[in-house]
Amino acid sequence: MNEFLTTLTAIAASAFSPSTAALAIAAIGLNIHFGYTGLLNMGQAGFMLVGAYAFAISIVAGIPLFPAVLIALVAAAVFALVLGVPTLKLRGDYLAIVTISAAEIVRMIGRSSLLTDITGGSNGLTGQSYRGPFTDLSFLGDGQTTLGPFTYDNTGSNGWWVRLVAWSIVGILCLFVFLLMRSPWGRVLRGIREDEDAIRSLGKNVYAYKMQALILGGTIGALGGIIYVLPASVQADSMGRSMTFFVWTALLLGGAATVFGPVLGSIIFFALRLFVQGIAGQFVPDSIMNGQQAEQFSWILIGVVLMLVVIFRPQGVLGNKKELSFNVN
Amino acid sequence: MTPFTQRTRTAGLLSSRRMLAGLLLIGVASLGLMGLGATSASAATATPTTKCVADATTGCIQGTIKQSNGDPAVGVKLTIAGGDAPETLTTDAAGKWGVAITVAGPYTVTLDTTTLPSGETLDPSVTNPATVTGGLGRNTGTIFKLSGSGGSSSGSTSAPTTGDTSAATGGSVTWERFLQQAASGIRLGLLLALASVGLSLIYGTTGLSNFAHGEQVTLGGLLAFVLANQLGLNLFLAAFLTVVVCAATGYFQDALIWKPLRKRGLPNTQLMIVTIGLSIALQYAFQFFIGAKTVRIDKANPVTVEIGPITLSVQSLWAMGIAVAVIILVGLFLLRSRIGRATRAVSDNPSLAAASGIDVDAIIRLVWTASAGLAGLAGVMLGLVLNGVNWQTGLQLLLLMFAAVTLGGLGTAFGALAGAMIIGMVVELTNLVLPGDFKYATALLILILVLLVRPQGIFGRRERIG
Amino acid sequence: MVVPTGSPAPVLQATDLVAGYVPGVNILNGCNLDVYPGELIGIIGPNGAGKSTLLKALFGLVSVRSGSVTLKGEDITGFKANRLVQAGVGFVPQNNNVFPSLTIEENLQMGLYLRPRLLSERLDAIFDLFPALADRRTQRAGSLSGGERQSVAMARALMMDPSVLLLDEPSAGLSPVRQDETFIRTRRINKTGVTIVMVEQNARRCLQICDRGYVLDQGRNAYTGTGRELADDPKVIELYLGTLAKDVDAEKDDKPVTIA
Amino acid sequence: MSTDLGVTPAPTKAAAAATASVAAVSPLPGVPKPDPILVVDNIVRQFGGMTAVNVPHLEVQRGIITALIGPNGAGKTTFFNLITGFDKPSSAPRLIGGPKSDHAARSMFNGRSVNNMGAAKVAQRGMVRTFQLTKALSRLTVLENMLLGAKDQPGENLFAAVIKPLWAAREREITAQAEDLLQRFKLLEKKNDMAGSLSGGQKKLLEMARALMSEPTMIMLDEPMAGVNPALTQSLLGHIKSLRDEGMTVLFVEHDMHMVRHISDWVVVMAEGKVVAEGPSATVMDDQAVIDAYLGAHHDTDLGDDSLLTDEVAEELAKEVELENRTEGDA
Amino acid sequence: SGGGSTATTTSAAASSSYTDAACASGASTDKSLVVGSILPITGSLAYLNPPELAGVGLAVSDINAAGGVDGKDACVLATDSGDSTDLTISTASAQKLIAAKVSVAIGAASSSVSLNVVDSFASAKIVQISPANTSAKLSGYGPFYFRTAPPDSVQGSALGQLITGDGNAKVAFLVFNDSYGTGLRDFTQKSIEASGGTVVYGGKGNGQEFPPGQTTFSSEVTAAKATTPDAIVILAFDETKSIIPELKAQGVDLSKVYLSDGNTADYSKDFEAGTLTSAQGTIPGAYPADEFKGKLVSWYKDTQNAALGDFSYAPEAYDATTLSALAALKAKSTVSADIQAQLAAVSGASGKGTKCKSYAECAPLVTAGTDIQYVGQSGVGPFNSHNEPSSAFIGIYKFDKDNKPVWQSAIEGQTSY
Ligand SMILES: Nc1ncnc2c1ncn2[C@@H]1O[C@H](COP(=O)(O)OP(=O)(O)OP(=O)(O)O)[C@@H](O)[C@H]1O
Ligand SMILES: Nc1ncnc2c1ncn2[C@@H]1O[C@H](COP(=O)(O)OP(=O)(O)OP(=O)(O)O)[C@@H](O)[C@H]1O
Ligand SMILES: [Mg+2]
Ligand SMILES: [Mg+2]
Fold it and tell me: Which residue among A27, B236, B417, E161 is least packed, with the fewest CB closer than 10 Å?
């Protein structure tokens, strides 16, 4: 029972951890891409990485916090632009491959030993080297605060401050997306998702809208990247393909083209992982599997559970099942 | 039994048996050769006369002098001064010299150039006498490089500067190197093509991007490991069984997962997430059952053949041959056969295909089975050619496979071949001109560039509007 | 010619069919259809009445929620489409009725998927019927014009040499000559003993050639009768046929337009 | 309702004016019109070796209904694609190796050049089209589909989008307009349904209504009534006419001759990519060549007649079709 | 608690059986030593977990056999560090260890992962001791970060000297592009160049490293071979298994191949006999640890029910655990912050401590208040001001005909920066 409580606490802790928020933010960005505009961006982690690098490198170079964030957003916007100019004319599946490739290229360049002086190469950049200006901003002061079962530093590297900021950003973004998507602008995006040519025939500049969506979602992704590295460190590999997959999974778990879907999806994604691990750890006796096997087994289960969730709730928790039926023409 | 009857009997056997025998023969022969090589190598490094072992109270100043052709330079005299007392040494049969010291500090090592083997001189870059800082509990040394030509031992003063002067591409770019790498490129391309055909087929028929395809490749390699290495089955038999089992996994996967999901009309994006889940589950299943280490299907060292300047292993040649044959067969099958046409029809318009009397589910089942089988075959051959498989071999190649498939135009078998060849070549040739670090990145960049010029892929076709 | 009801058993019969796409929404609400051997049945009705849904339900492409479909006395409700093709049922859908990335010839070959041995013979026959297609046999169907696609779709269905043929708006998008030809060909095929059910928005033409017609509205049979009866029924005219053709013809006869 | 369907309404003043505006034009292919809204030159499109469209010169008169007819595969849809920016003429001017400037494709719409212009821009200029194979925006509701058609929406700007008051008024306006049109197109009950769930004919209707939402200067309809119930067609034709009367130019492709005869002021006939005839509808449709090549001998006959089932008739029809093919064929 | 053996008993230990000392929930409340581990149970470095876990587990077992810490048995709370492609795993595990208020966190294996969690541990004032990190980035990162892995400078110089001492003037590197590979490469290169050798391939700043996850090595091998090196150094982990046959296939003399601690392992099951004969490698450690290995194997067999074939970083993990227990003993507290204060002392930082080799041997000394220097299995010296070993022994191994590394000698080196 005690064990179970520990698991529950851990799940709750991870549900509002900064990385969950970061994933949620990235998923909100992806939602604009895929959920609303239908852009198959398989490189959202690339946007996160660009944002994280630009942010961390700027701060290391001595640029103050807000300009550094701005630089990160601009960098992501430029990345989106560079990526979008040629690729937004491509058919969806091709866009997917191009974006996943571009993200991988960013990662490989970032971790290349040739750029060790700037990006830290395979070591990445340590959190200490860029976190300062952010923690300095905290008005929570030093010391620890306990809320329920959770005790964290008020400011610290991974404390209440970063949680507060991260989730505030999530909240603001949700509101922002809500406002955008109920507007005619959002309607055009959804129209593009359905049939570009039809929208073009109605006199809308599809290319410009797609670019706006790509840039908007990309910069939001970059924001996610910043949040992701604030309590940790910048590691090129950590924002690679698996991260993109996680963002996608979170989005579809929560429900694409819904405002809160990405957020809920991220929470569910991490909670599910911990839950399955906790359960598996508890119920698999040591005599059958050792620690390592049990851990691996729990990951097998996570894979399976993920499949099952999508299978039994394909539209996601918040999605509208009706919309699925017209997906195939 | 007379030789004659024997011959008639062999003629009746499957040709694969004969190939197998041939392969075995070559293997045995090369084993013998290698044994010879090994003994001679160990003979060369045998018993140095002076052996110094560094410990807390001793340090070693030591080195090996080699002639320009790599043979040890025997009988070269050196004087070591500093610390305790000057000492004169002669290199032993292995060209080694060494002295134990008990005091840390700078030592001067002087080589008596007159004792060098005839025709050898000190390389101009070497400082003679050389100063080394000896320390206790460590080895210290200096290299006296010899050159065969009559270069003077006079002038040079400074120690050699850092690193190699050649460009970031590393080493000299020679024709031999180019050809060798091009051959590796073709080999990688073909294997990649074989691995991606299934991906392309599944995409082509169902529109699904199967992110678990990499794991199907891994499965092939790991199964072959279990069968050939663990259970000791003959390699060909193991490969055959692997393909059969892998194909079966495709069959049951479709029966248990994909068909029911198709029935429920899940969109492809959702299915894609399901494949990601499957991929995760399979990856950890591999770790669970086989472990995270790299395993080798065939413990034996590769037996090589030289074709001009190119050295390739026999297994590579086999693998390339099989890959070409299989891809051509699959391609022709799709283009020419009735089932192949049905496959394309299903990919175009499943409900109309059903209305034409095609059993859509059966076709898709066939595609899954074939894809998994082909992936398994590719896994076996990749495992052999790349000298090992582990739980993430396929995963690491998946992006290259997607790139290949896309480059060739989504959903066509020959497109996958063409795309894979380009990707394979780019990957293996990148380090001729760019830092090798970027070899995958370059391949992906090429993909992006090609798509800019031909947005529909090399073999893809544009759609009509309206 | 109307086959007297009650004589031979219906070859295709739908009883109280309820079917739909989205759970909870029924598109067909108890639809009935009896098709006797050798009949040519026309189905007309407003847009969204459920005509295509009915054909799809007969052909097993829409899930039937209640009621039954029988073919030659055998219950075929829920059968997979390919089994029906085996049983001799042919179907030309309203939309997406060609394989766009296959060539014309391959499209036709798909029509004879189950009996590939007859291929060359049937192919010649069909190309005789559609000479335009013969010239372009290697063109991909996806690049064809709307009308050309329609011809390919029809030709594909004829390749199978079916005993029961379900046609969903075969004349849509065809030029007038080809429309006429299509209708007349349909009748000729019917006369060779093929049972045909056709949905048409070219209702007047359809009622001209069919033996019996059904008017569908909101997923139910609204009117049934011989083609002539329906074509002359003022209610049917007002609600479903319109008077345009008549008006125009009248107008043309009354006051021929002269060029100034 | 019967008023809508009954006898052909007496031609309105505007209608008469429209007819009159082209009355003096001689019925020759490529003839200049008194007040052309669209003028195209040297529009050529080749696919491989086949020339799908080759129109040296064509003018479309402002404020009338022009029908574009012709056999299947004549190049009508391709022509639409070319002038609306969805496809590029093979004869389009290019930086290198393009055609000489007087042979290069040119198109003027409403007095301004629309050469090489993207589809969206062309539409913004007021030339809005529909597609033969419908393009419904499946996962949007019918109403949303409609609203997308409307022009001048401040809310379609990313920066204004977040602030509702900036666009709420216009939104109300176009919603009313949309509901009005939906009513007319018998789609009002479906307004909150997903467009993907519409039937084939309903999608056609929606597409047409959506195009009308933008209140275009010129609307180009590609087989708008194929698959639409005849009774509904009839009432919609009335609507199209009234649009013309309000000044809209209509160019439409159609195979339904009754409809062409009923509403078009001018007819352009295409075959094998070329404009082979044009003129007032009655003139063109009584032209023996057009009848032979396009309408066929039976277009006025009752096909229920058993005498039509003889082999001779079949052969005759085959010949007619072949004639059409030859006109359309590869030359 | 295990009925294990002390380090003083002989290899008979291999026959006695161990039991797992996994922590019961709430172990932290009873003030026993809770050894948290954050090791790659899953992911691309998962093959490093068994030896490292065995090191930790065996150490705890030995500690408990010697009476535990202050009479209370120590226990292990094992968590997964995953790999650098999914840092959320290590983040969650770190939070779990922090929530459990462990006395020490042993890990991670990968420098990237350590960098991800190091700040969290530090801000929770929990000592983190990595048995395998060698990245320069982590050198002296903060007061709560320690490592027992020998710094690259020591091994690099030993390896470089080994290479040049054999008369190899032109050296090619095949280097895995992570902090382990590049860090070790940099120091090895430095040492080679100091002796007058040159690096012809794979040197610093050439971008010729191969990234993780690469599966094909033919072009690297061809390129390296084209520079006609006298020796080839492979600084990688498991990839080595694919690289060696590729070298063989391209006709490279494998007796001129040098390996390091990441890959000097028993390859008798992987390669044909004779493949690696005379190739050499370095592994930190003062002496051949056959007995220690035997104990690791049996601990792993008894508690994890699986065979242990690999020993990379097991000694370092063992030492990290033992050191923290000794520090706890000295601090008379199992609170991490208190342990942190004593770690340097028990490692012998004063330079005057009595040398002792195992917990059983050291514990009584500590209890008696004697200054000690723990000389463990990995041959590392006392912690310096960067919280990393100030010196280390590096063993030199040569492969025999069965592709097994055979201990030749050991040299001790000082950490330099
Ligand atoms: N992308 C293409 N590739 C090859 N041929 C094409 C392509 N697009 C159109 N065609 C050919 O060009 C010709 C003209 O086609 P188009 O669609 O313009 O005809 P249409 O007049 O609209 O006919 P319909 O009345 O049947 O709709 C046809 O023969 C068609 O096959
Ligand atoms: N895929 C679908 N999903 C949900 N509802 C659908 C779908 N297809 C059709 N419907 C609904 O079913 C009703 C009947 O559609 P159906 O296609 O059968 O009409 P129809 O009689 O063939 O009309 P038309 O003459 O326009 O082709 C329509 O009102 C539509 O709303
Ligand atoms: Mg219909
Ligand atoms: Mg057309």
Answer: B236
